[in-house]
Amino acid sequence: MSKLELLNQNGEKVKDIKLNDNVFGIEPNDTVLHDAVVLAMANVRQGTHSTKTRAEVSGGGRKPWRQKGTGNARQGSIRAVQWRKGGIAFGPKPRDYSKKQNKKERRLALLSALSYKAKENEVVVLDAIKFETNKTKEMVNLLNKLELEYAKVLLVVTELDDNICLSSRNLGNVKVVLPTEVNTYDVLNSDKMVLTEAALKNLEEVLKNE
């Protein structure tokens, strides 16, 4: 098992802890990781875009002029695609972009992402996080002490405490989640993954038993 320093809220070392190699030490699978990221980005697409075809735009019920003798090109409707305000040919229509990935692949992708984080020393574990107030400065002070003020942080806690959630709400670089909500895209999209010791044990227990 790989060792990691357990820190307090002041960024000081408390002791060494070990990461579970079955969760943070596997050989990453880049293909499954790529599929998981594509799935995550595709599933947030609404797919509500729509254009009107020549059958759906209003007007154009009759031939604009006779077929021959006018000197103009022949036309059948003023709502054909070549006319201004005419229909759109091959335009987008509402569709479902969602993709699927089986359970074993999703689990492997998450384990691969966590293993990359551990391998690149981007995992920070704290003994606990406790704020006296719900002010933003509480979270800012914590990030400063951990030297993460400019990093995109995924904060994993066992309980969505009001003070923690509210103090991070105005910070665009911090996302607070529960161990059961950790997903591949969020892990890869963060610069640093910060967990409490309890959240780490919870996450390892869940992924180890799946």
Structure description:
The protein has 210 residues and is of the alpha/beta class. The chain has two domains: 3-45 and 100-209, Ribosomal protein L4/L1 (Ribosomal Protein L4, Chain: A), CATH 3.40.1370; 46-96, no CATH class. It contains seven helices and six strands; from the N terminus they run E-E-H-H-H-E-H-E-H-E-H-E-H. The protein has helices at 21-24, 30-43, 103-119, 136-145, 162-168, 184-189, 197-209, and strands at residues 3-7, 13-18, 123-126, 153-156, 174-177, 192-196. A six-stranded mixed sheet has the order 2-1-3-6-4-5. Helix 2 packs across helix 3. The two termini are 20 Å apart.
Structural class call reads: alpha/beta
Q: How many whole angstroms does the radius of gyration measure? A: 27 Å
Q: Which CATH architecture of the largest domain?
A: 3-Layer(aba) Sandwich
The averaged pLDDT comes out at 93
Described by strand count, sense and barrel closure, the largest sheet is: 6 strands, mixed
Counted by DSSP, the helix tally is 7
> Could you name the CATH class of the largest domain?
Alpha Beta
What's the number of domains?
A: 2
Report the helical percentage.
Answer: 25-40%
Q: Spans of 5+ residues with little confidence (pLDDT < 50)?
A: none
What percentage of the residues does DSSP assign to strands (E)?
5-15%
Number of DSSP-assigned strands: 6
- Give the CATH H-level superfamily of the largest domain: Ribosomal protein L4/L1
Secondary-structure element series:
EEHHHEHEHEHEH
| CATH fold field value of the largest domain | Ribosomal Protein L4, Chain: A
Name the shape in a single word.
elongated
